[in-house]
Amino acid sequence: MAWNEPGNKGKDPWGNRGGNDQGPPDLDQVFRKLSGRFGGGGGGGVSTGIVLGVLALAAITWFLSGIYKIEEAERGVVLRFGEFYELREPGLHWKATFVDQVYPVNINNIRELPASGMMLTMDENVVAVEMKVQYRVVDPRAYLFNVTNPDESLNEAMDSALRYVIGHTIMDDILTTGREQVRQDTREELEGIIEPYGLGIQVMDVNLLPARPPEEVKDAFDDAISAQEDEERFVREAEAYAREIEPRARGQVQRMEQEANAYRDRVTLEAEGEVARFVQLLPQYQAAPDVTRDRLYLETMEKVYGSTSKVMVDTEGNGSMFYLPLDKIVGQGAGQAPQRTAPPQMNDSSSLPSNSFNNRRNVRNDSVRQGRN
């Protein structure tokens, strides 16, 4: 049976007894009772001192909650009612709680983002490439609000740039000599992709890690790389040999050239000396041709016989040859004292008369004169 049905003697939840239904209590009465308990009297409202105290405490709490600090490596992006307001420098600052929002962004930290994958080269080979990009934030506002996720956008841009460069490069260059060019091209392509989006970041460096072919063909590519390294080594050895031989050859050429010049100068001077001697001899020959001719003949024979150790002399056409062993004579003269011999007789066929040479000279001069006439 419900509490308010006729005949129910139960308790009324509103405190009515005896069935007298007076309804729920008045709220004014409830507040009066509470104010009486806390105010110490039966005043007609909430104590003004308590209200002011509560408000002051709330204001202090609100003020203290707005104090914050920006670190040295950070910049604070302030939003007021959800709209960009200003950038805050490092130090202690205050913001209006529930009005301003501050997002600190580190602008000095160098961040790193990796990218990797199996990519197709220009010569239709598959290669595993890994690359890391280093960057930092230069514009905190653009970094936070220009794109939804700048790090993810940078990752996708780097993957696109890397695949584009790898797709326009042959595999040998990627694995060996063209790595530096691939790195530079990837960085330029990446910067060109992210520039229109205004990510607020600056690419510091792009590092290309060692690329490798698929495991199925790794041995064949290792052999190819070894062959290329051997080729480079042989080229360096050849260049070193050339650098060693070339100065030596240049020195030999210079020495031979100097010797040739010296020989030319010597021959020229000797020829000039001979010409000068004959020029000086010409007046003497013109003055006394026979005497000059005989003197030249004698001087020539003296030079000829002076350089030989054996002399063969014709004994006036009698079919015998006189042999004068000058080498033995010289040797005897050096080893022992010369022996005195008697002067040769005129009728001795083994001796050379003193006038025989003069006779032959006269006959020769007569024949020369007859031939000239």
Description:
Helix content is 51%, strand content 18%. By secondary structure, it is of the alpha+beta class. Among the domains are: 66-106, no CATH class; 111-219, Tetrahydropterin Synthase, Chain A (2-Layer Sandwich), CATH 3.30.479.30. The strands form four sheets. It has a three-stranded antiparallel sheet, with no helix packed on it. A three-stranded antiparallel sheet has the order 6-7-8. Strands 1-4 form a two-stranded antiparallel sheet. The longest helix is centred in the C-terminal third of the chain and has 70 residues, at 218-287.
Widest sheet: strand ordering:
3-2-5
**Which structural class should the secondary elements be placed in?**
alpha+beta
Q: How helix-rich are the residues, as a percent range?
A: 40-55%
Number of strands: 10
Order of helices and strands: HHEEEEEEEHHHHEHHEEHH
CATH C-level of the domain at 111-219: Alpha Beta
Instruction: Indicate the low-confidence ranges by residue numbers.
Output: 40-45, 337-360, 367-373
